[in-house]
Amino acid sequence: MNVLTKNIENRNQVEFVSLEEMVPADHLLRQIDAAIDFNKVYEFVRDLYCKDNGRPSIDPVVLFKIVLIQHIYGIRSLRRTLEEVGMNMAYRWFIGYPLNEQVPHFSTVSYNFKHRFNTASVEYIFRWILKAAADEGYLDTEAVFVDGTHIKASANLKKQARKAVPKEAKRYAHELFDEINKDREAHGKKPFDENNNGNDSGSGDNSGEPEMIEKTVSTTDPECGVFHKGEHKKVFAYEAHTACDKHNFILGVHVTPGNIHDSVAFDCLYDDICKHYPEHKIVAADSAYKTPWICKRIFESGRVLTSAYTRPKTKDGNHPWYTYVYDEYFDDVICPEYKVLHYSTTNRDGYREYKSRSYLCADCPTKAMCTQNAKCEKTVTRHIWQRFVDMAEDVRHTPLYRDIYKLRQQKIERVFADAKEKHGMRYTQYRGLAQVTNWVKLKFAAMNLKKLATWKWKRKNPSPGKRRRRIFAADYFSWLLFFPFQTKKPALA
């Protein structure tokens, strides 16, 4: 009972303590505080504040540090973050608040990041941390690893509606349309009318109105999209299309609704990468990105796309796709029975059509393995940019680029795993594409900052164990110079 009474009395003791002494020297927040100069924040928020108007505001550095704490430790909400800041001495030391000072209300922090600090402010923070990592020599942008991951949206699946929305035109629609007409004219075909192909739908509608498609839209968050793949549960989600370097630093991110394909969102992400890191030479991505347009864009820029094997979409029991050989000189296709499929036309989707002669296919012994067409015609299509896809396929067999692609799982997939398991990116409580984009960029900025701070700290403060191992290795190899060991090849049993 005396011990219990003493412990209860200790609660009412008055002590003189210092936050500086209470935070360990190797604490993560100490490493982060020493890694970068947070005074840089004042430079880009100067225009957002007024010196002689309104009430005294909260220090913007404090606001950004609070949000960084939330994303570094994976705290699910700002409300919970401010509760933790009020009770955690290390958090108070990081933001510069003593024990007797009340921390800001969570609504104040939320309001500032919703109305004051816009997308440009968040982008500045993201690029500022990356620049600090580049200045330290930690970035290796020769190879860029690209992929996307889904984030569950704050939307109930039961609250949905079917809505007709205009079909989005492809970004490269005009360039593809010009290439199609050039190809048709080269083969003596009449070019397509641009008015008939305004939406690149291939329908040939002369109305000029965009094609409408039905989509499932959330009534809670209309800007998210339905995600359903494999064994995953059908949910409303966003997708973060991300690029990282060899050292797992996130170089760029583009957030879209969850029903947008990776290849569609690639252009916006790649534009950002080319803008900030034009020196990159290799792009490693999975088979979803191996489309004619993406291959053309990367290879024409002097860079290389290394990707995975794409399983051909052919029927079981039919001839394999590779048995139909394209003859570039004569612009024909040779079938497995050594018959020629001649050029027929180039359709609106950019595919050349090669058709066989019906009188040759009627008595073919492998007709059942080739076509079930009533006219006894076999049609093989080839995209006008197929040569770039073939280049990507050739690169896949090169040892150098094959090894780089194997690193993709260790790089970009590791980034997604850490973001979801350690930093709370599995689902978001924000709604709207702009808010979710800022939320994702701040989370990735926190991850980059954590890695930067950890690496700088380990470089300045190497562990004693590693130092002893280095000394032992140096002594060992120096002894080998004077007393080399005789090694024998073991005899076969």
Outline the structure in words.
This protein folds into three domains: about 1-115, no CATH class; about 145-310 and about 390-435, no CATH class; about 320-385, no CATH class. The protein is built from 18 helices and 13 strands. It has helices at about 1-10, 20, 30-35, 40-45, 60-70, 80-85, 90-95, 105-115, 120-135, 175-185, 260-275, 290-300, 360, 385-395, 400-405, 410-420, 435-460, 465-480; strands at about 145-150, 160-165, 210-220, 225, 235-245, 250-255, 280-285, 305, 325, 330-335, 340-345, 350-355, 380-385. The strands form three sheets. Strands 1, 4, 5, 6, 7 and 8 form a six-stranded mixed β-sheet that branches. The chain has a five-stranded antiparallel β-sheet with strand order 9-10-11-12-13. A hairpin with a 7-residue loop joins strand 4 and strand 5. Helix 9 packs parallel to helix 17. Mean pLDDT is about 85; it is low at about 195-205 and about 485-493.
